[in-house]
Amino acid sequence: xxxxxxxxxxxxxxxxxxxxxxxxxxxxxxxxxxxxxxxxxxxxxxxxxxxxxxxxxxxxxxxxxxxxxxxxxxxxxxxxxxxxxxxxxxxxxxxxxxxxxxxxxxxxxxxxxxxxxxxxxxxxxxxxxxxxxxxxxxxxxxxxxxxxxxxxxxxxxxxxxxxxxxxxxxxxxxxxxxxxxxxxxxxxxxxxxxxxxxxxxxxxxxxxxxxxxxxxxxxxxxxxxxxxxxxxxxxxxxxxxxxxxxxxxxxxxxxxxxxxxxxxxxxxxxxxxxxxxxxxxxxxxxxxxxxxxxxxxxxxxxxxxxxxxxxxxxxxxxxxxxxxxxxxxxxxxxxxxxxxxxxxxxxxxxxxxxxxxxxxxxxxxxxxxxxxxxxxxxxxxxxxxxxxxxxxxxxxxxxxxxxxxxxxxxxxxxxxxxxxxxxxxxxxxxxxxxxxxxxxxxxxxxxxxxxxxxxxxxxxxxxxxxxxxxxxxxxxxxxxxxxxxxxxxxxxxxxxxxxxxxxxxxxxxxxxxxxxxxxxxxxxxxxxxxxxxxxxxxxxxxxxxxxxxxxxxxxxxxxxxxxxxxxxxxxxxxxxxxxxxxxxxxxxxxxxxxxxxxxxxxxxxxxxxxxxxxxxxxxxxxxxxxxxxxxxxxxxxxxxxxxxxxxxxxxxxxxxxxxxxxxxxxxxxxxxxxxxxxxxxxxxxxxxxxxxxxxxxxxxxxxxxxxxxxxxxxxxxxxxxxxxxxxxxxxxxxxxxxxxxxxxxxxxxxxxxxxxxxxxxxxxxxxxxxxxxxxxxxxxxxxxxxxxxxxxxxxxxxxxxxxxxxxxxxxxxxxxxxxxxxxxxxxxxxxxxxxxxxxxxxxxxxxxxxxxxxxxxxxxxxxxxxxxxxxxxxxxxxxxxxxxxxxxxxxxxxxxxxxxxxxxxxxxxxxxxxxxxxxxxxxxxxxxxxxxxxxxx
Length: 937
Hints:
By secondary structure, the chain is α+β, with helices and mostly antiparallel strands. Among the domains are: 388-596, 8 Propeller (Methanol Dehydrogenase, Chain A); 652-925, 3-Layer(aba) Sandwich (Rossmann fold). Helix content is 14%, strand content 32%. α8 (732-749) crosses α9 (765-773). The radius of gyration is 32 Å and the shape is globular.
């Protein structure tokens, strides 16, 4: 080869290498391929982990690895994986390829003809995979292994369409009896498979089934097939492969239940073949020695309030030790007059000022009201039944997983009306309940806060927001103690700036035998004597350096904290460092790992001191990590997004300034990669309330359903400013202005922000604040406001349609922060309502408000938009039909992010205007023409 040609080739190769190594800005196609980790698990023996990689668009991939880091297997189109209890197998669902499935749907193939899921069984010892086609669902025992059970879909048999000539010499075969069809109504065939030897039993026409948690037993309901297998409920001994009939009658069976050891059975039956509107639901119970399940309660049997019935919707379950069976009862349901014709029924709601709940709330909760049940209990040794819950005492909280003789009753019924204008914390009455007798005793009345029962059941406890105090009640002595009264720091949220009673910081839990209750303040964990005799002890002493400590429960089945050695999380409010600490015997606090990252809650293997967790910062994706409990050697398991190395990510830092109210504030400042302070950058400001604690959050290439992704915009050359806001009651809009605007102007003064190209974006409460700001300042060249309240007067009298609640409480006591009624402070409502100052707006506005928004009524967006339109202000509104407070469907989330970027790029980067902004998209073209293309000059 010629020498000059050789040099040219080398030069080209070098240039190519440089080109390929350069990072690029993120785009919307990156959203489709960016993986999120889902369904992470660790095997009980601590030797294996699994996780799923879920891209924005496409098939899920299952990964299985050793906790030491070696990948064992990878399966595409595989979801819902779990380990068996013995850590020998991974059970998962194999889905049809998404692209192929969508192609068939486009061809209008009927659902029953679409390809079905398969079952994957992966042997971790032999590294072999079994695939079982047409599996509808699968269940895996929680605390024992060797078997699984799965339902099979109907096997489709293609019809023989070939024609056959008549042959008179052939003898006609007798017609075979048509087999009952497998279906949702008739049930599906259930296979109980032995994973060790591959043998299996098939139980036919099964509607419902479940395994015992620890005992090798299975309970199932079948519609039957013949005289050998009659309809009913059957107990299947997995080891013996034997079946015991619980009941053999055609009927409706609900709430199958097995005791933890699998030796007791309960279920509800309705064998009445008439069309009676009030059903005679029966509670049936079985244990070894009985020939079948016997009726223990129905409309006529069992101790219940007069006229009450067994409720088919009530939860049916055994206490952990099997000594008690809990079920639901209720007054008989309200029934309609079936003699009335539809045209004779008067459909009217009568709104009475004395109603405890608005009709809108009643309508939302109608199904819950119709199904409402009240806890009752049966002693499985004596068969004695006692009613614990009542229609005046709807909530019962048990202790020690139902093993304890004591419970707590909670009722907010006398105070439900207050919710409309007070919101939270709710008023409650607390009761002590004797589980063995059903006796109730009122122990605290009209408490502004919630309560519970201690781990072993010795105490009731609650927080009262009125005096910011934790209380305990000893049901043996009958004494109530203000146990936090001797703690020198506040139990209430120190940062609360709502015109409301502040909430508590909660508790870590109770120690063994209810010796101590561990209570949180802003920073620390306090060891508190529930009898209030011994002085409280600060276990962590984090307040001195603004470090917040919280308990990490590594064994969720532990009812009590044994703090001979416990794991804590730590977060420093000043440096934003996080990590894990170890606390031994309530005295020795030791740092295990601590850094400028955001750490997740670790998940421990059931039978080994191995955990998985993740850590992240702005540029570090939260991949799956494993470690022992010293955290000295941390192993990275996953690499979810290797493509990140090719993307521009930028940087983030804490930014400080002083508000117009003289308050020192902090926020986050995202800068483009290779930031040059001598350049002028466009900037977008986003805010809600406080966000600076999210310094170490990794955003990734994902579309956010309602707000900007700061990393995405920094990748594309924007500076992004996320300020914290502190509020004054009565002046939420002005508080926002006083916090945000000086931060923006200080950034402008630093020289790297283009003062003519600054945008602002926010959603819901953030959307309201933006709507307010643009009526007071022209500093922003473009603004996007999602689901904004524009008129506090009409919103005050509106409804939160998702819950049916009145919106009054938001303005009087919570987020909207007016601090009183419309009649007390009419000017505050007007001054804080952007609708009254629309004529002052000069900023182009993009709104998003969806017609199924259950949080902020979408007529708030309409009021704002039509006012802007009336004044010919540049404005657009996106309404994703039948979507709630934000888009939830992938295509809509992606669409919103595209349109928002085009909007900001046009006004802040002088990019061309897209067609949807310039010409619009009329209703006749909705769903056909997206209008993304840019218009010609």
